Amino acid sequence: VRELFHNTSQIKIAHRGASANYPENTLPSFQGAIELGAQMIELDVHLTLDEELVIIHDATLDRTTDHTGEVAMLPWHTMAKADAGSWRGESFRHTPLPRLQDVLAWLPNDIMLNLELKGTPHTAARLAAHTLNALNQFHCEERVLLSSFNHELLATLRKLHSNIALGAIFYGRLWPPLALAKELDLFSLHAHVASIDDAWVQFVRSQNYEVIAWTLTTQKHVQVCKESGVKAFVVDDLSLLSVS
Ligand code: G3P
Ligand code: MG
Questions:
Q1: Is the Cβ–Cβ distance between 95 and 83 less than 8 Å?
Q2: What is the ipTM of this complex?
Q3: How many other CB atoms sit within 10 Å of the CB of residue 206?
Q4: How many independent structural domains does the chain possess?
Q5: Is residue 214 within 6 Å of ligand 1 at its C-beta?
Q6: Measured in angstroms, how far is the CA atom of residue 131 from the centroid of ligand 1?
Q7: 15 lines ligand 1 (CB under 6 A)
């Protein structure tokens, strides 16, 4: 991850995979992202009742599968039967929900992951520990950036792992601006596209933290981010970044 950011001027991060073209957070969406030129894939991780790591955005199955119920209250064997594709069209019928281990087993060597740890306040500590174990088991630590809106969870990750790349996601601004970044030795600050501006981006970058802007949906977003000096862009639609 550090090498990618050091050597690349435009980092395309596929939000939930190529989610404009495929059912989000599924293997076809991740494969599609690579075909469309992403170097990094963003995906969301939750913990099931029986402590499997499942890739899904929401805390429930309702929006993106043909099942219902809370992820944290269901065992994996129930979720394994869910169809996470047909809500996006017949051609995606029977696309399964992936687990983190399925993604790590599939992941091509040159592709990076941005794992966003969701879970709930009650599952956060176990979600952190299980995620690190899986990355260790698949020898993927160097290719993964772990991020979260839950900054306490980031602190747990840092206690458990002294040098894995961590990023804080937030709306608006963090205050004091770099206190969290210094305290947790963060790699990156993940700012909502609406709060990107030149002075802030330049300040953060001058202190050697990376800025990641999420989630860009228009050419105007791309333009504002580029003019501010952002070089890592989270997008649903990768074609937004192919226009210069
Ligand atoms: O990592 C940025 C973005 O994924 C955060 O929002 O809700 O799409 O996971 P969300
Ligand atoms: Mg996310």
A1: yes
A2: 0.98
A3: 9
A4: 1
A5: yes
A6: 18
A7: yes
